[in-house]
C-alpha cells in the first residue's frame, strides 16, 4: 500500500495557470468564472486532468470538482468535456502569441 505524505495546512500553492501567459484569463473572466472554476478549467485544458486528479491537486473532493466542472461547462454552453475542449481550442487559436 502506498504511503500518503501529509503536509501542514497553510497557504496552498496555486496550480500553474498558463491562462496568464496565453490570454485565457480574459476569456475566463468574460464568462464570469470564479477563481476556483478558473483553476479547474486550466487543469482540464492544459493538463487534461480528470476529476480525481484535479481533486488531489486542489485538495478538494472529486464531487466538488464535478460541481465546478459542471458550472464551467454551463458557462461555456458545453454539454461535455469534448465540447468544452473544442470551444477552448477555438478560443486559443484566436489568441496572438508573442514570439519568445
* Beta-strand percent range: under 5%
- What are the low-pLDDT stretches, counting only 5+ consecutive residues below 50? 9-17
SSE pattern, N- to C-terminal? HHHHHH
CATH names the topology of the domain at 29-93 as: Arc Repressor Mutant, subunit A
Write the layout of secondary structure elements.
Layout: H1 19-22, H2 24-30, H3 35-47, H4 51-58, H5 62-75, H6 81-93
Helix pairs in contact: 3-5, 4-5
Structural description of this entry:
The chain is mostly helical and 100 residues long. The chain has a domain of 65 residues: Arc Repressor Mutant, subunit A. It contains six helices and no strands. Helix 3 crosses helix 5 and helix 4 packs across helix 5.
Give a nutshell description of this structure.
The chain has a domain at 29-93: Orthogonal Bundle (Arc Repressor Mutant, subunit A).
Supply the key terms:
100 residues, mainly alpha, Arc Repressor Mutant, subunit A, 6 helices, 59% helix
Amino acid at each position: 500500500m502506498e504511503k500518503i505524505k501529509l503536509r501542514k495546512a497553510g497557504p496552498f500553492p496555486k496550480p500553474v495557470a498558463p491562462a496568464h501567459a496565453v490570454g485565457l484569463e480574459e476569456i475566463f473572466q468574460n464568462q464570469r468564472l470564479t477563481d476556483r472554476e478558473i483553476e479547474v478549467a486550466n487543469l482540464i485544458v492544459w493538463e487534461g486532468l480528470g476529476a480525481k486528479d484535479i481533486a488531489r491537486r486542489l485538495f478538494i473532493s472529486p464531487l466538488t470538482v464535478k460541481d465546478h466542472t459542471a458550472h464551467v461547462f454551463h458557462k461555456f454552453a458545453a454539454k461535455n468535456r469534448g465540447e468544452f475542449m473544442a470551444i477552448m481550442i477555438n478560443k486559443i487559436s484566436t489568441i496572438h502569441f508573442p514570439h519568445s
